[in-house]
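so my prof wants the structure for this chain in the tokens format not the other one, which i didnt know existed until like an hour ago. anyway here's the sequence
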Amino acid sequence: MSAWEFVDEDDEDDDEEEENDVVTPQSARDHVFPILVAELVKESILSSSEGTSIMKRFAEGNPAIKTALDMYDKNNDMAVLVETLQRTVASH
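here's what i got, hopefully its the right format
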């Protein structure tokens, strides 16, 4: 076999993996939101039960949490996001 005929199958697999690694806004949220909630609990901004409740609602697609995240995407105001999350969990 000549060098021109050599096909590295691993390169083909890497290309497929790169195509599947597209980051969507929702996949980014799915990755980052649990980290944010964990930090808020760690810093005692939220209680552990509030963090659990927020994560449950996030997983269920709660519209108030989705809207709060959409607003954060637009204005990058973490204080407003945290206040909204606190209100969301307090209202239930």
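also thought this was worth mentioning. The radius of gyration is 20 Å.
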